[in-house]
Amino acid sequence: MNSRILQINIKPNTRGERGLPKKPVDNVFISKSGLDGDHNNFRLNKKNNDPDMAILLITKDIIAELNKEGWPISPGDLGENLTIKYLKYESIKPGQIFNIGSAKIEISFICDPCTNLKVLPYVGDEKINDFIKIMMNRRGWYSRVLKPGKVSKNDKVSLSK
What we know:
The protein is of the alpha+beta class. Helix content is 16%, strand content 34%. The strands form 2 sheets. Strands 1-6-5-9-8-7-11 form a 7-stranded mixed beta barrel. The protein has a 3-stranded antiparallel sheet with strand order 4-3-10, with no helix packed on it. The radius of gyration is 15 Å and the shape is globular.
């Protein structure tokens, strides 16, 4: 089955608001610094806009797995920019290059869970430590942009050869 974009998520820099969850949009332009209209405070202030962290992606299957474990996660909740369907999470590896819409990205490294996830209504302060443990190696993958381009919901996602 062909992998596709299930959801595109962004969060503009809105005074007084946290960056989670991100909200869905139908299409967006991806530049070398990430998705237009998306602001990532951590990447900007702590990581000096590291190009290896331009995009965060996750797969629908890992969200479904976490749902079965009792965590009612929806696409965008974990701060990911792209939620991909029909791609196995465990098949993603650093260095892989994916064509997405007219853009091309390279997988950089796995995203570690953080305490900012406590803003999710089903986590809070009381469950954050448990949530961080179950999210280890499951929060998504950072990617760098090799070729800017436009992406839209349901665009094909293919491994570059």
